[in-house]
Amino acid sequence: MWDAILAMGRAALAEAQRGDVYDENREDPVDLDSIPGPDATDPSTAVRLTVENYESFLNLPLDFQGFCVQSLVARKGLLVPGNPALGVVRYAGRYCVFSSERAMAEFCTEPDRFFAGVREACYRQPELIHLLRVHEDFPRSSLQAILEMMSGQQSVMLADVACETPLHFQESYIDKSYEWNEWKLRQDALHVADIRRKTTSTTQTAFSHLRRENETQVYLPKEAATSTSTSRGTNPPRLKKYFVGLRGVPQPMQVAECRYDL
């Protein structure tokens, strides 16, 4: 990491010798009083804090290890110490110092662009992540994560997962005749085909041909009665017809008519 920083310093020194480095003395001075103070009500505005307008100025925690953010972005990763005497700029919960008045004024015009430029510089030069103490922007670049990666033991990532389904969204149906085994299905198909080729045969003997139970009909005895002269009656004869030949051996039907005189 230190070799890369030394290489950056040598490159910056070479640019300075060629005259490519920005010289603030070549530009017109900047009025820092135009930058809003701590009394500004807009939270999205960069605020300049000084000894005169902020009581706890000496206890402010400087971000980016006190290096100038504008120089870091505009000079492609060049680390230039900031000058707290010019004031401290507070934006998005961070306190930044700058190497010149023009650098501070340029940062206050577009602070989000410079913060994004710092992250981009850290992507190009990962050693700046630990040097500038910007681990919260790169959670996987912590020392513990790097040591685990080098040792080949990645930490196990766990997460709680829950799944909820509707209650009885589909009626339960169980098919008792369902069979998943194709060999069992093949056996059932062969069994059905075998049954269709079979017939049922019966045998009837002479004794069982049109056999029926025997029946006997009798006349029940009557109670004795005496008829007096006052109570008399006449009982007409009864006619009965019997048909012969309806069942049994085929023969011509005959009608037997009987007359009962009771």
Automatic annotation (TrEMBL):
Record GO cellular component, one term: ciliary basal body
GO biological process: cell projection organization; regulation of cilium beat frequency
Swiss-Prot/TrEMBL keywords: Cell projection, Cilium, Cilium biogenesis/degradation, Cytoplasm, Cytoskeleton, Flagellum
Keyword Cytoplasm: yes
Superkingdom of the organism of origin: Eukaryota
InterPro entries: FAP206
Subcellular location: Cytoplasm, Cytoskeleton, Cilium axoneme
Keyword Lipid biosynthesis (UniProt): no
Family listed: Belongs to the CFAP206 family.
Record-given protein name: Cilia- and flagella-associated protein 206
Species assigned in the record: Cladocopium goreaui
